[in-house]
Amino acid sequence: MKQQISTFLTFQENNAEEAMNFYISLFENSKVIDIHRYGKDGPGKEGSVMMARFELNGKQFMCSDSFVKHQWTFTPAISNWVECKDEAEQSALFSKLSENGFVMMPLNNYGFSRRFGWVADRFGISWQVNLQ
Prior knowledge:
The longest helix has 12 residues, at 87-98. With 132 residues, the chain is an alpha/beta fold. The protein has a four-stranded mixed β-sheet, with helices on one face. Strands 5-8-7-6 form a four-stranded mixed β-sheet, covered by helices on one side. The chain has two helices and eight strands.
């Protein structure tokens, strides 16, 4: 079996499926690969995501709804980096990701690329969108 390294997102508000579907709607060539749900006997909320695998433009991610309330949440210290093909794509992506989220660095030229922005989306996931 080939070793695969994937990003795993642990959601604590039973919104893993909502987040996964939101991300899939943003990127071409994206899809849900599989999804396993908690049943009526738990331990998680019935119907919530025990574990799901999905692809964003061919890159695999995994997610779940944690039935344990952890002391931590997502941090911007680890983020998803997206290279955009043009300003239109970057602006649209940045706008959708920042809706009900938090803009850490608005789209601008910060000296290391032509145009860059950093945002935490409404689920708390951090995204850096870049245009070389």
